[in-house]
Amino acid sequence: MATIGTERDQRPSPDALLAEAKRETRGKLKIFLGAAPGVGKTYAMLEAAHERKREDTDVVVAVVETHGRRETERMAQELEILPRKTVEYRGRTFEEMDLDAVIRRAPTVVLVDELAHTNIPGGRHLKRYQDVEDILAAGIDVYSTLNIQHLESLNDVIERIAGIKVRETLPDSVLATADEIEVIDLPPDELIKRLAEGKVYVPEQARRAAHNFFSPGNLTALREMALRQAAERVDAQMVHYMRAHAIAGPWPARERILVCIGADSASSRLVRTAKRVAERRQAPWVAVYVETYHHLSLPEAEKDRIAQTMRLAEQLGGETATLQGEDVVAEVLAYATEHNCTMLVVGRPRRKGWRRLYKTTVTDEIIARSRAFDVMLVSSDDTEKPPPALKTQEPDDVFDWKGHILAALGVAAATGLGFLIDLWLPLPNISVAFLVAVMLIAMTLGRGPAIFASIASFLSFSFFFTEPRFTFAMSESQNILTMVFFLISAIIVSNLASRVSGQVAATKVSAKRTANLYEFSRKVAAGATEDDVLWAVVHHVAATVHGKSLVLLPHDGHLRIAAGYPPEDKISDKDNAAAEWTWANGHPAGRGSTTLPASDWLFLPLKTARGPVGVLGVQMAGQEFLAPEDSRMLETLADQAGVAIERTALVADVEAARVATATERLRTALLSSIPHDLRTPLVSILGAATSLYDYDQDLDSDSRKELALTIQDEAERLNRFVQNLLDMTKLGSGALKPNADWCDLRDIVNAAVKRSTRLLRNHQMKIDIDPSVPLICVDSVLLEQVLFNLIDNACKFAPAGSAITVWARGRGGHAVIEICDKGVGIPETDREHVFDMFYRVQAGDSQVAGTGLGLAICRGLIEAHSGTIKAEPGLYGCGTCIVLDLPVGPSPELGLTPELGVAGPAGVARAAGAE
Amino acid sequence: MAKILVIDDEPQIRKFLRISLGANGHEVFEAETAMQGIERFRTLRPELVILDLGLPDMDGQEIISVLREESRVPIIVLSVRASEVDKVEALDRGADDYIVKPFGIGELMARVRAALRPTGNEGSTGVLQVGSVGMDFARRIVTRNGREVHLSKREYDLLRFLAAQPDHVLTHRQILKAVWGAAHAEDTAYLRVYINQLRQKLEDNPSSPALLITETGVGYRLRTS
């Protein structure tokens, strides 16, 4: 059906264009619509198929029911027929369409007879039209047939006209979204003639019913309905076309229809009627249910019926809304006003007996108060039970024995009190004691016991305290008034009290729901990683449904269990199929839904604005269907979960992008640096090596040693550069993880100094480490690399012969290490930047060139240890000090004093003087 | 001098080792794959194996285990920097020493000499004099500059364990298991504290140790030369 917008401008409506575009990628559905069996739909379909085949179209038959008609059979056999699938059900075998085979075969057009057919349980879908949806989604055109009586919204009309309850129904939306409808029309007389000739297939067991069904009156009515459907379709298509092509039109006035749902069985009729009215008026419609505190006390069967009615409304293409509030009428009217509804559809009130006298129904009130709306009354069916259109009355409770007994005790106590008052404090009106008792009973026990208490109080009062005493007779009119006041106050107070307690209960439920959502969003928001979020989701959902839950995420094109509570690592193939279907189609599947209901799990899609992210599986403890509030809650949870999962994926994406950018920058920087840094040592090595080889005889031994030393030095320089490149690459890609362990800082400094021996030949090395420096928890190899780079750097910039100092102290949980040289120092403006990659202080050609990597690596490694590194001017402003500050980490659990290792006399090394 | 088997897939490295080890009077045999190496080991029975951990056909660590099942031959592993985990694993699997690539020949020859030195029973009965430090494990006496040094039992055990294989790298885990027991195999902090105490008592300059050498990220070695 075309959706109707309000704009009247000349641009095509985006929604309409979108729908049009979507339609183009899907296969097209053509329905051959008939008024009754036997009009020749299948034959017409086959004829059309042959027509297409003559045009060289790839036409295949998936299902055609020939019912033994010879010419139909012959026509079908001239086409390619896909084999059907045999399904076992309750010991019998049935033949069903092989949906997977059809999609695999992927013809241009496939023939699927009898669209309203219900599949044998165990297949993928409950209904054949759902199979057809899948085929269309695969881009295959479908020809199908349908009798008008199978249409969901006409279901009850047909039942009334023909007296036959049609069980195989089809949502109207299927017909509405069909791309083409061809009405196969046959005048009733001819059809009856064909029936008489035995040309119409009728199953044996339905022969008598069929006789009634095929009456001229019925057939005429059905024919009219089929033709009208088709005509409406043409209208809809026209509007649709006009809208999509921005043809200024006389648009149908914007209308919106609201249908009020109650807990009774007539509600489904109301929904169907509303749907028909809405269709005819080209108007969107919404089914509304108002949840009062009574809803909580409704029997489960009625709650289920409401849920089913709401589902029916959704299936018929309506919106649904559940409102909360005490005043049903006010809520409905407020909603209607807010959503620009023009018409209200309500059930005709039915009242039995004496209730008619005092009881106003919701319907009456709606009519009285809804001056701005059209109201349509829909009659209830006589054959159905006649409950009121919308229940506002509590269902009759079982007699509250406990309440009444307590009330009796209360009255007895009041009587006792009355005697005491009578004895000690002669008050003129003892009835006050009874009034208090009645009020208390009304507040705590409800209306029934309250009325009982007021009557009992009255009787007790008149028996014990009024003249003549010990008879029920009363002489004073004042006392009769007392009786009346008792009754009135009991009713008022008990009504108020039960209303308040009902509201409290409803508020509690609503608060619980809000708290649940709030808690959930807090939990998933707190999860930083995908694992955290998934865990929060499954845990929370499982707790909400009092069952199990699963999250499945796509992995290599298949769904994989990403989390489960209680943990689950495998689901059956059946369940998996349902999950995959949900993933592919974005609709719920599995237990409690209409698709693959044989699955043990119910699967809900996790969708966000950017598309599906995964599937949520739930298994409720014991129950088959979810209550609407649970189902709505679950959907909200699924939405939030989808967003949260997407968020973590986005974080990972951003992180990946950051790494990619860093890597790219590094690559660019390296490409510009490598020619210089790599080639300079190579030039020296190659030069020295060739000199040694070529002029071996001409060189004296000092020169030979000099050249060999050059080769050695430059090779080592190259090695350092390569090491730095490797470290930098690892840092850039985040692959460098410190492998921290308890280390002695002195060891690390010594190792670094030892490695730098050859670099340090022209300098003095001073090591000043306080003996009290604690053990520090670091990756000793990485820290050694840092110190080595810093010493290397100091050697480059400090004048020959000057001292390089490594100094270290412990400072309350931190270790501070300084590497100081007496070089030219770093200009203040550069101090921040020397740790940037490839940053080199501009200091003229005479300066030894650094690679611009060493300090950057130092910073990377120190930061990986949660430490800091900075450059400061040296002592008296001379030279440079690089200051490292490292957290020591938690104290190692040594629990030993320096001599704790001594263990008894045997343990002491014998003291014996060697002198 | 000694028969040395070099297992390395790089011909340039084999050539360099052949020439320089040959110049030191050793007899050098080469293998370029793990399988060939194991085969030549079985036929030649060399006195020392120099093994590159990065071979194309088999994980170098596996070869150590294979060789260790068959003999006590000293194995020196060639490894790269920043793969301390590999080094430790190689040592724990029974390799005697490692050397980081790239390396100078002087460094290698020192390791080769240490590996070829018979690992006698100095640890339990022998006497060892390194610089100013004298160790007489038969009499349980440790001296420095001729004066007896008082050591706690743990310190003494630790020193004796290191001295049992002088110049060999011993991993943290090996030392901790031997001296503190298997339950403390991961408690490197103990080790750091005791090594420090030993250095304070034995080294001339404890902050620049000459006897008890730290192998960063791997373990310790007691240096005799």
Explain what you see:
The complex is a heterodimer of chains A (915) and B (225). Chain A contains 27 helices and 25 strands. With 915 residues, chain A is α/β, with parallel strands linked by helices. In chain A, strands 3-2-6-7-1-8 form a six-stranded parallel beta sheet, with helices on both faces. In chain A, strands 11-10-9-12-13 form a five-stranded parallel beta sheet, sandwiched between helices. In chain A, helix 2 (41-54) packs parallel to helix 3 (70-77) and helix 24 (701-732) packs across helix 27. By secondary structure, chain B is an alpha/beta fold. Chain B folds into two domains: 3-116, Response regulator (Rossmann fold, 3-Layer(aba) Sandwich); 127-222, Winged helix-like DNA-binding domain superfamily/Winged helix DNA-binding domain (Arc Repressor Mutant, subunit A, Orthogonal Bundle). Chain B has helices at 11-23, 34-44, 60-70, 84-92, 105-116, 153-164, 172-179, 188-202, and strands at 3-7, 27-31, 48-52, 75-80, 97-101, 127-130, 133-136, 141-144, 147-148, 170-171, 212-215, 219-222. In chain B, 40% of the residues lie in helices and 22% in strands. The chains are: A alpha/beta (915), B alpha/beta (225). Chain A binds chain B through residues 712, 715-716, 719, 723, 726-727, 739, 741-744, 746-748, 750-751, 753, 767, 769, 771, 775, 779-781, 784-785, 892-894, 896, 898-899, 901-904, 906-915, and chain B through 81-82, 84-85, 102, 104, 134, 139-143, 146-148, 150-156, 188-190, 192-197, 206-209, 214, 216-217.
